[in-house]
Protein: DUF2029 domain-containing protein
Amino acid sequence: MAESGHVIKRIVVSMPSFAKPVLATLIAVCGTLSLWRLVQYFTPEYIYQRDFIQEYLLAKAVLTGTDPYAPLPELAKRFLGPLTTAVFQHPTPHPPAVGLLFSPLGLLSYQHAVQTWFVIQLALVAASAYGMLRCLELRPTPFVVLTCSFLAVTWSPFFQDLVLGQLMTLKLALLIGTWYMLKTGREAGGGLFLGAAIAVKFIAWPLVLLLAVLRRWKAVVAAGLTVLAANGVAAMVIGSDAVIAYYTKVGPLVSSLYRGHASNFSVWSIAGRLFAGTDSPAMCGVKAAPLWSAPELAGPLAFVAPVVLLGAGLFASARVSKSSFDAPFALMVCVSILISPVAWNCYLVLAAIPAALVAKRLVEQQFPVVPTNAAIMAGALLMVPPTTLNRLMSGMGDPASAGACRPLVPFPVTTISLVPLVAVLVLMWLVWTLEVFSAGSRVEDGRGTKGLPG
Structure:
């Protein structure tokens, strides 16, 4: 492993001309197989198990003037009739703006709405690939965009997002739009895209703090006004009481139900794991006792890790902001993922931004050994599906609880579920390290070569 950087460099340099089309063909085949697998989830057996049912019921409630934050079983009974599969027992966790955005799909039958959103998601993946290439100052030819899109749908977070009908492909497209606009100096446009991303899912708010630290006030104001406008329109359509109820009751309630789930790799969950245990009353998953039973400490100490990570991210971003906007943006995208109260595998779709930047920097710097090794490790960890982690943890638990909804496992076993957290932290280190070296290389240009560790 110590020489992997040099090995990869030799492979890239010595790669014959026919190898790239062969590699692209292999990616296309894998992508096509992934799409074929995704289509299988349209069958009646799976279609009502999608998270998309939450967006659909929210949209139907908006269209009919029903309370959009009534419990999902009540909305499902009213708009879908008796179902063979159970739906979540709580209100939808999505903000009011999502109900407005998805209201056109609420005019369709559920099956047609699922299929339409799937097609839109695929278009968003392609748009994100195009935008990413533009942000990285690479040529976005149709062939390259299609290859990147196929590569994306084979990656576990994208695959899960497409299976569930989640919102992260939309979120990624909006954040890439933010990145491109701000990188090219279009402050109002960047703020508009960022505000839209926050209105759809609140987890990108640390990027507003980044813009404030960089004193890009026009973008900050534009983002704030966009969020206010989205919620203002929602208040006029569904009522201010529903909007206020979402932010004061529904959002915190749903977060509290899932914060203790093993698959939640948010840094908010660390104190709970240590002092209150690992378990969720709303969804099956491994269950473990705390390392030290002190539930009264779990709440107050839950803020420590997010605050430390946010501060470290802003500090690091400010340090490298003079060399480029790419690295600060990528760093704070990582922070946004990890300090969301709940972070699922599909949230790693957003990690495509720092991962792409790291890949570009590695190529530019000819695959230095230590960062290349770290990138290989992070890439491998990011590719592990959550089902694999869950099976691994369950297999190491109490045999008496095998096959149960909440199999009992020892506390150390639950650290396996933090693999995505480790991967994102490694990505942050890579973004920082490679950017510092890149900036140093520009300063030292003409005065010799400066090497990275290893």
Summary: The longest helix spans residues 110-135.
